[in-house]
């Protein structure tokens, strides 16, 4: 039962996610290209479905320059369709592969820019409000209280971080054409995992290796915004070292390594400041692992200082 919604013209498949097929679609009334993700939920009970729909409704309110826009959803008996912004210029995992193949490091300036944008998006999700304006970061105001609409990403990884440039939006990803000052980062796949992880299908279809999963989540503790910060640290590490901080041949071994939180230094090519941001995030101790708020203040100050030099 494909494309029963006549508002959309169903186009080619662009990939397969953990829960079903991902397709390009054309929204006919607006002539806009979108991505449609399908989630088979025939096995879910009505409470689980309700939770999924509730999350969709929260996500559809999550509008931010650095977050893949969630437009709409519709459902039939067995399938939920999610319609979202189409990101045509590739993702961070492609960028990492490109640099690895070329045997080059990703320039540090570009890493700081991507970091700041990921954090801006995480801040929006974790605090339920938009970023504090740059001018106010110098006062020691308390961070905003976490709202009810708090969203935890839960699956932060290079493949869920889309890249484009403000200038060449719509083009294929090409590092040669990429202007570092204009790179636009968009986080995708927010939040929905909350409903899905509890469903039976998750256990059987989550085939990805949990390279970025925090030790507390591996130990079956609940997700918190700080679990995203751990994953964030792992992603930044991978941009520097062109491989994740924890790797292993088996799931058990990976789990063991993550729980030790011991990883190799990033290449000397990069500054101590970058190394120290990464280290602060890949911290087993939730009491000392920084929030998006703290990191963002810190990083913006560093970027501001660097640009003054
Ligand atoms: P995963 O579960 O591995 O994250 P996804 O369901 O997110 O898989 O996506 C499957 C494929 O579709 C991936 O190749 C991904 O890059 C692509 N994709 C997902 N969302 C978008 C989007 N908004 N724009 C463009 N491509 C997307
Ligand atoms: Mg994804």
Task: Note down, in words, how this protein is organized.
This is non-specific serine/threonine protein kinase. Belongs to the protein kinase superfamily. NEK Ser/Thr protein kinase family. NIMA subfamily. Residues 8-301 form the Protein kinase domain. GO terms for molecular function: ATP binding; protein serine/threonine kinase activity. Its EC number is 2.7.11.1. This protein has helices at 46-59, 92-102, 108-127, 193-197, 200-205, 215-218, 225-241, 251-260, 272-281, 292-308; strands at residues 8-16, 21-27, 32-40, 70-75, 79-85, 161-165, 183-187. The chain has 309 residues and is α+β, with helices and mostly antiparallel strands. The strands form 2 sheets. Strands 1-2-3-5-4 form a 5-stranded antiparallel β-sheet, with no helix packed on it. Strand 1 (8-16) and strand 2 form a beta hairpin. Helix 3 (108-127) packs antiparallel against helix 7, helix 3 runs antiparallel to helix 10 and helix 7 runs antiparallel to helix 9 (272-281). The longest helix has 20 residues, at 108-127. Mean pLDDT is 83; it is low at 133-142 and 200-206.
User: Residue ranges: pLDDT <50 for 5 or more in a row?
Assistant: 133-142, 200-206
Spatial gap, N to C terminus: 60 Å
Q: Identify the overall geometry.
A: globular
Bound molecules: adenosine-5'-diphosphate, magnesium ion
How much helix is in the residues? 25-40%
Tell how many strands the DSSP assignment holds.
7
Q: What kind of sheet is the major sheet?
A: 5 strands, antiparallel
Radius of gyration: 19 Å
The chain-level mean pLDDT equals: 83
Going by helix content, strand content and strand pairing, the class is: alpha+beta
Tell me the strand order in the biggest sheet.
1-2-3-5-4
Helix-strand pattern: EEEHEEHHEEHHHHHHH
- How many separate helices? 10
Strand residue percentage = 15-25%
